[in-house]
Specification:
The chain is α+β, with helices and mostly antiparallel strands. Helix content is about 45%, strand content about 15%. A hairpin with a 2-residue loop joins strand 2 and strand 3.
């Protein structure tokens, strides 16, 4: 409750300065346009609907319907013009050790709007319907997916069944979304923070990727770009950690971990990986040739399904292990991975 109170007090502070709204709109709009041009090389042709701060405050009843929170702020549900929506607010909470600088939060918010809108044609991405440029940090307005975060389904204490068929669907959808980022733009865009907390399942159990705050594009003609570390425990590419160079293989590593976690839930694999990324490979290799390999590697909820094919599980594990090789040069390309994943029935 203290955290929510701090968020709201900061938001009210910004909203009291009504005379700053025109300046915020112009500054944020200019930053958004620059970001759109940067990621699309000036070929952007999808309009973004702009909503006023007053509209979003009213639509969400002062941001009361909060449905998801993280270090950047929160997502809340509301109703705008008779349509159910989700609003993503960026807030810098004073005293929060996980907070970022104002510049970083603003840059992340603008980047999120730009890339989410560029990805709007991809069915595997949470669809943006507009934004608001009148807050200190721009807000995103999504269509309401009536969602739940994937990480919640993978919690061992969760009593909801996530079938093997559903897990395969998630793997296929996210592989397609990451491949789209890598191939559909003038230069590849690297997602960097892939993990179950950035994937939602809507009320039809359709997976959607969201949060493009930390994406980075490769310079034209280059295969890597140097940047500060974005630390995602358990999903962090060890090569990126040691060199600070981001490549397409950075996403391949994270995707491999995601595959293993889809297999295992948040069991031994996930716990081992949070301690040391290399443990995930060691853990699976220690059990893959044992008689009880599936009991050690695969979530019991999957094994209890009568229709599950063990050969398919084995092939899935093998793909994941190729993705989480310590050296990027030993990992496959995302195109190769997506092709193999999409072949699973």
């Amino acid at each position: 409750m203290d955290c929510i109170t701090k968020m709201w007090s900061v938001l009210k502070k910004f909203r009291k300065e009504e005379e700053d709204v025109p300046n915020l709109f112009l500054q944020n709009g200019s930053a958004l346009l620059e970001e759109l041009i940067s990621f699309s090389s000036g070929t952007y042709d999808i309009p973004i609907r702009s909503y006023s701060a007053q509209q979003l405050v009213k639509a969400t009843n002062n941001f009361a319907g909060r449905v998801h929170a993280s270090t950047y702020g929160y997502i809340c549900r509301g109703t705008l013009q008779g349509r159910s929506i989700l609003v993503k607010m960026f807030i810098n909470i004073p005293g929060n050790p996980a907070s970022h600088s104002d510049f970083d939060i603003l840059a992340g918010a603008v980047r999120d709007i730009a890339v989410t809108s560029l990805m709007s044609r991809d069915k595997n991405v949470l669809k943006i319907i507009g934004c608001c440029l009148e807050f200190r940090y721009p807000a995103l307005v999504y269509e309401d997916a009536r969602f739940e975060i994937l990480a919640n389904f993978l919690d061992p204490n969760c009593d909801k069944l996530l079938s093997w068929k559903s897990r395969l669907k998630i793997a296929k959808s996210i592989a397609s979304a990451i491949l789209y980022l890598h191939t559909a733009f003038p230069t590849p865009i690297i997602y960097r923070i892939l993990n179950p907390h950035n994937i939602i399942l809507d009320h039809h159990c359709v997976p959607k990727l969201f949060d493009f705050s930390f994406v980075i594009s490769l310079p034209p003609g280059e295969l890597q770009v140097e940047d500060d570390l974005i630390w995602i425990p358990g999903y962090f590419d060890p090569e990126y950690q040691s060199s600070r160079f981001v490549t397409q293989k950075t996403d391949v590593y994270s995707f491999g971990v995601l595959l293993l976690v889809l297999l295992n839930g948040q069991g031994p694999i996930c716990r081992a990986n949070e301690d040391d990324p290399e443990h995930i490979v060691n853990y699976v290799n220690d059990h893959i040739h044992k008689d009880d390999q599936f009991k050690q590697i695969v979530d019991p909820k999957i094994l209890n399904e009568s229709s599950v094919n063990h050969q398919q599980l084995q092939a899935f594990i093998n793909i994941a292990l190729r993705c989480v090789q310590a050296k990027g040069e030993n990992r496959p390309d995302m195109l190769d991975i997506a092709r193999k994943i999409l072949q699973f029935e």
